[in-house]
Amino acid sequence: SLSACFLASENRVTLLGTTEQLIGIEWLHAPRPFLYCGNIGPIEIPERDSIQELGERLVMQTGVQGLFGIDLLRETETQKLWLLEVNPRYTAGMEVIERGCEISLLAILADSFETYPT
Known about the structure:
Blueprint: E1 2-9, E2 12-23, E3 36-43, H1 48-62, E4 66-74, E5 81-87, H2 92-101, H3 105-112
């Protein structure tokens, strides 16, 4: 299970990073195989271009702006990615990206806004 973090502005969609989701790990108090218990990363994955393209299509079709995340499953045998969820908000994976890359995504979001005269 993977998470991807994006920033969408008026004319650009940027994949900020990817993380691995920890699912169903008993020592993390998730005794069932589908229970979420955290993210680790950032990680590099070979499907980066495909995930970037998916983020661009989501923005085109939904108009989502700002920070958003998606959750994906990677099929073990085929390595095919399946979109599970779109989160139009700051996500748990974003905090992992911030700490791992020593960046502030909220500062990057603020810098992405154009200043309008009042």
